[in-house]
Amino acid sequence: EAFVATNRSKTFFLYYAANDVHVPRAPNARFLGKSQCGIRGDAIEELDWGVGQFMAEVKRLNLANTLVIFSSDNGPLFDDGYADGSLQAANGARPAGPFRGGKYRIYEGGTRLPFITWWPGQIQPGVSDALVSHVDLLAALTDLAGASRPQNTGPDSVDLRDALLGRTKMGRKELVEQSPNRVAIRQGTWKYIPPGKVLHWGALAIPDNTAGPVDWPQAQLYNLAADAGETNNLAAKYPDKVKELAALLKRIQRDDVSSN
User: Fold this and answer.
1) Considering the entire predicted model, what is its pTM?
2) Which of 27, 78, 91, 223 has minimal Cβ neighbours within 10 Å of its Cβ?
3) Which residues contact 228 (CB under 8 A, 6 or more apart)?
4) DSSP conformation letters of 106-122
């Protein structure tokens, strides 16, 4: 709040990396028990309050020409080596919603993240399923600010400002996802995961709770439009799609840059 008030009369960029939900979790006493989902839920309550305080200050100062982006760096995780009882006290909470897995996993629960943009007069309230990545913020924000990037900077960053501002629901054609020791590729509603070894870390009170290395000798193919939870492997049914996406992923890895 103090930063915003001090810089209200000039253009500013503020990056706030909240620690609330990250371990070790230590929410303020006023939030303990508020969520009824343990200390992790209480930490989320504190995060929500903190974001609310910031938003209230922006509105109080009438900084209408302010773009606010709220997101996360990975999917949810209960136990990352800290025995704080978060898993035991989850009270049925499913932080990844309908999606499979969480942090450290290649499934949508680990790679599909909250992403909210707010800009009065520029963004109309709505929901979009446009495929975007955090790396695209480099191009979008640079261009929105009227700045230029040095040559060869952020070759994978795509200017998706119209998608981020809700002007279109057209995003990327394809996107490579990554978790420890694993990659996958999204193309529209299709998702392909090549065969290989998976590293699963942490305990999650959601499906796919396997721990330790797991071999996946077979390719995985999912149609997320019909199967958001990635439960029905269609690789055997659509071998041509598997071949197409496998070749695309290899080309991107070889060239070290995506096509869009």
Assistant:
1) 0.88
2) 91
3) 98, 99, 108
4) SSHHHH---EEEE-TTT
